[in-house]
Design goal:
The protein contains ten helices and 15 strands. With 346 residues, the chain is α+β, with helices and mostly antiparallel strands.
């Protein structure tokens, strides 16, 4: 088995000590040949794997976060609107060892969030050749694996990125603080998003002047530290896209609806409040989002610029990944690990 490992050497979450712990775990897989390459600029991972087939490598192993996963997916599959898009069996299988800040994709697949633990799980998957096929999202002609959003969530991510560039860490509390600030600005000048969607069963959804509309390809859509944030409980890598929106940002109901998007109401105690303001649609295969003025758009946690119109689709069985066959987490929880992760929230 020929494996190409791709890593960003400038990532603050990676260091030589971590490599010394992780790489031997993967190299010990019988019959595995490992080659490591490092990225040197944004988009390099996409350029690196563009046009690769299984004749080049059997596996592309991403040692990074959701942004690097997004680059590799787009490099392997090419433009989503291409008539010559490769089948999942023609391109290398994707594997991930998480080192990002959220790691939504790999955690939703059922892997641990820590690199060493995830490496041990992945090694067993490689030995047993345990893989599955997942659906992916498409926005315009590009792919996304986790989520995409117009407006508020894109503004939050852009501002968190600016904070990180200034040397601040992207902690869950920082996300919540930035989300509240973005909410206050959006209340004054809310986006006016028109939404049109169609499900695989032919059902339709339409809404106008929506200030917040979010699209996810996974369940959960993100994590608040160790806690999953769920907007569309029925969503999965085996279905279409899940839509979650807030119809009105005014009053306490609007605030609670926005905070629900960012995981504050993890136990759903405020369902009666949020149900009055939130919009849900499941298993969407086509979605059109239109704004009268340009607004930020994000995909897989990366800002993609400003747009007035975005078309999204769900592509079933788009990519093969190494992952547990049953990604459902065990019923019991590791209390020590949760407490350890909670201490890291500062």
């Amino acid at each position: 088995m020929r494996v190409l490992l791709i890593s960003n050497p400038n990532s603050t979450s990676q260091n030589s000590a971590l490599f010394r712990e992780v790489l031997p775990v993967i190299r010990d897989v019988e019959g595995l040949q490992l080659l490591a390459r490092f990225t040197h600029y944004p988009g390099h991972a996409q350029d690196m794997v563009r046009g690769m087939t299984r004749e080049d490598f059997d596996v592309i192993l991403v040692f990074g976060g959701d942004g690097t996963v997004n680059e590799v997916v787009n490099g392997l599959l090419g433009p989503a609107d291409s008539a010559n898009r490769p089948s999942p069996q023609e391109i290398p299988v994707l594997a991930v060892i998480p080192t990002g800040s959220a790691n939504v994709f790999v955690r939703a697949l059922g892997f641990p969030n820590t690199p060493v633990e995830a490496a041990h799980v992945l090694a067993r998957m490689l030995e047993r050749n345990t893989r599955r096929t997942v659906s992916l999202g498409v926005w315009n002609d590009r792919w996304f694996a986790v989520n995409a959003g117009f407006g508020l969530d894109a503004d939050v991510l852009a501002r968190v990125d600016r904070a990180r560039e200034m040397g601040f860490s992207a902690t869950p509390l920082r996300y919540l603080a930035v989300a509240f600030q973005a909410y206050q600005r959006a209340r004054i000048r809310p986006p006016r998003i028109s939404v049109r969607a169609r499900s695989s069963a032919g059902e339709t959804f339409a809404a106008d002047d929506v200030p917040v509309m979010f699209t996810s390809n996974t369940n959960p859509w993100t994590f608040l530290g160790p806690l999953p944030v769920v907007t569309n409980p029925r969503n999965s890598f085996d279905q279409g896209l899940g839509l979650f929106g807030v119809s009105d940002l005014g009053g306490i109901d609007g605030l609670v609806g926005v905070l629900h998007l960012f995981g504050v109401d993890h136990r759903h105690w405020l369902n009666k409040v949020t149900d009055a303001r939130t919009l849900h649609f499941e298993d969407a295969v086509a979605v059109d989002l239109v704004c009268p003025k340009p607004h930020r758009f994000q995909a897989d946690g990366e800002s993609e610029g400003t747009f007035t119109e975005v078309h999204l689709e769900s592509e079933a069985d788009a990519l093969e990944v190494f992952a547990p066959v049953d990604p459902a987490p065990p019923m019991h929880r590791n209390i020590r690990r949760i407490l350890r992760d909670l201490v890291r929230i500062n």
